[in-house]
Amino acid sequence: MDPDAEEQMFAAVIAADEKIEPRDWMPDGYRSSLIRQMAQHAHSEVIGMQPEANWILRAPTLLRKAILIAKVQDEAGHGLYLYSAAETLGVSRDELQRLLHSGRQKYSSIFNYPTLSWADMGTIGWLVDGAAIVNQIVLQRTSYGPYSRAMVKICKEESFHARQGYSIMMTLVDGSEEQKAMAQDAIDRWWWPALMMFGPHDSESSHTEQSMAWKIKRITNDDLRQMFIDQTVPQAHYLGLTIPDPELAFDEETGHWNIGEIDWEEFWATIQGDGPLNRERIAHKTKAWDDGRWVREGASGYAAKNRSLDKSA
Amino acid sequence: MNTITTQSPLATYIVRHADDNVIIGQRLAEYISRAPELEEDLAVANFALDHIGVANHLYTYAASVDGGQSDADALAMMRSEREFTNLLLVEQPHSDFGELMARQFLFDAYQVGLWGALSESSDETISGISQRAVKEAAYHLRHSSGWVIRLGDGTQESHDRMQSGIDRMWRYTEELFFSDELDQEMARAAIGVDPAILRTDWERVVDDVLEEATLTRPSDPYQTGGGRSGGHTEHLGKLLAEMQWMQRSYPGMTW
Question: Across the interface, do B155 and A294 touch by the CB < 8 Å criterion?
Answer without folding.
Answer: yes
